[in-house]
Design brief:
Length: 505
């Protein structure tokens, strides 16, 4: 047996290597830096890592390669755009995560134990969340650029495992937080098993684990179509779980509600970008010639997700659960871009992913500000009169809600208009009509919250709006500015995406 040394293009891989390096250094910081200095060092390290990686992504834009890592990864325009979106979302999320108030002082302690109380009195902080976040970002950056099934699965686990842990780190409602983490882990494990079954069937169909080999078998029709259909179905289940689409959405409301709100924000935004980035590559390149087999199923899932997410969100009285069901509806909207299967659909989906991700982080950042003596207040009834208590928080949240609803002059309107136009070009009329109706339904409960905040008298029930720290304020302001700019003047970003978003096969 002859050992062949791997040939790697370190320039093209540099954004991923920088993030992985930052994560490893973060682990060393946890081991060797004093407890007092750890929070500042970890925040500086994480922020510097993401910014340096983003600079490298900008440097390699326009580069194309099928073999940056021996054929297991691919670098092209969509890869650069998705990686850039993930890093921007990570940068604004890390400011929110840096607010230590949201995390338990001692993750290993039993909820309510004497050990936990002593840790809280000592002012302990769980700074492990920084390297965990960085490892998750590394997995998210690999996931949409993987070009074989093994690398795709490895990236899926690298991005998922830190999220399972971080979902259980909430400072308040510790049992609910741990329950959400366990539910996320168990259901995620089942989804990973389906994913592996799908990979095995696709290998049996094509005799290859590479995307190019599977695509050649699909184009040539040389394999057993039953194996192809089963493989596609199981692989799709694993991907749809990560984006929270119906019927694989049941984890979303509970995990969104139980997890620390900064982690919910990061997970809801960045995971969707990474998972849809992978879906775009798989369906636009590997399975494009088998559209007849998956398009009707994905269309039905998109329609169901849009309707269920919008209708069930109306009855929610918890802000985080409402946003969870809203995210399910948005998963359906984004699936419209997969169904479009054209250049316009690819461009619109990438734009929508970035716009929705930024607005989501901003929206959850505002949720962290509404508090009482027990912590965050997520009961909508106690948000009455929020506009009078804190015009800043209420106005920012209203802006993000209007973006989710797709109201003109926000990024959401441009995203929805673009993605529905692309789906209509491909003849997906039923999906587009359902999307428009679902958007109208969603606008009802978004505007209901705005009316509650600005046109309802406040009730003195102990609810107050915390003056945001400079870090949380930075998250909200950056997200709000991006949401407005993409709604008022989206042309430069759309042109940039159109120029770069071309898959190489």
């Amino acid at each position: 047996m002859i050992f062949t040394a791997p040939v790697l293009n370190y320039t093209l891989l540099s954004p991923i290597l920088i993030v992985l390096g930052g994560a490893l250094i973060g682990v060393l910081v946890e081991a060797f830096v004093s407890r007092a200095l750890r929070p500042v060092v970890q925040l500086t390290l994480s922020l510097g890592t993401f910014m340096l990686a983003l600079m490298q992504v900008w440097r390699i834009r326009g580069e194309e390669s099928l073999t940056p890592a021996m054929g297991s990864l691919v670098i092209d325009g969509p890869a650069v755009l998705i990686q850039g979106a993930i890093l921007v979302i990570a940068i604004i999320s890390i400011f929110l995560i840096a607010d230590a108030e949201h995390f338990t002082p001692l993750a290993a302690a039993l909820p309510g134990s004497e050990e936990e109380r002593e840790a809280a009195q000592a002012g302990n902080q769980v700074t492990e969340v920084y390297p965990l976040t960085t490892f998750a970002v590394a997995g998210m950056m690999i996931f949409p650029i993987a070009s074989d099934l093994i690398m795709l699965f490895v990236a899926l686990e690298v991005l998922s495992l830190p999220l399972y842990l971080m979902a259980g780190l909430s400072r308040r409602r510790r049992l609910a937080s741990q329950e959400s983490a366990l539910k996320y882990f168990l259901l995620g494990s089942f989804a990973s098993a389906f994913f592996l079954f799908g990979a095995a069937y696709l290998y049996g169909y094509s005799g290859s684990i590479t995307f190019s080999g599977i695509r050649e078998s699909v184009v040539g029709g040389s394999g057993n179509d039953v194996l192809l259909l089963i493989g596609m179905a199981f692989l799709t289940i694993g991907l749809l779980f990560k984006v929270g689409a119906v019927p694989f959405h049941s984890w979303s409301p509970d995990v969104y509600q139980g997890a620390p709100t900064p982690i919910t924000a990061f997970m809801a935004a960045a995971t969707k970008v990474a998972a849809f980035g992978a879906m775009l590559r798989i369906y636009y390149t590997v399975f494009a010639n088998a559209e007849w087999s998956w398009n009707p199923v994905i269309s039905a899932i998109a329609i169901t997700s849009m309707l269920l997410g919008s209708l069930v969100a109306i009855s929610q009285r918890d802000v985080k659960r409402m946003l969870a069901y809203s995210s399910i509806a948005h998963a359906g909207f984004l699936l419209s871009g997969i169904i479009a299967l054209n250049k316009a659909g690819l461009d619109a989906t990438i734009f929508y992913l970035f716009a929705y991700g930024v607005a989501t982080v901003g929206g959850f950042a505002v949720v962290t500000l509404v508090r009482d003596s027990s912590g965050e207040v997520t009961d909508l009834n106690r948000w009455k009169g929020l506009g009078k208590r804190s015009p800043f928080a209420a106005s920012a949240f209203a802006l993000f809600l209007l973006a989710f609803a797709g109201i003109p002059l926000t990024s959401g309107f441009i995203g929805k208009f673009s993605i529905f136009s692309a789906a209509y070009e491909n003849g997906a009329t039923a999906v587009v009509i359902t999307g428009v109706l679902s958007s109208a339904i969603a606008a009802f409960f978004y505007i209901r919250v705005i009316v509650l905040m600005f046109f309802t008298d406040a009730v003195e029930d102990g609810t107050a709006v915390e003056i945001p720290s400079i870090l949380t304020r930075a998250t909200i302001v950056i997200a709000a500015v991006i949401t407005l700019v993409l709604g008022v003047y989206p042309a430069p970003v759309l042109d940039f995406i159109t120029e770069l978003a071309i898959f190489i096969r």
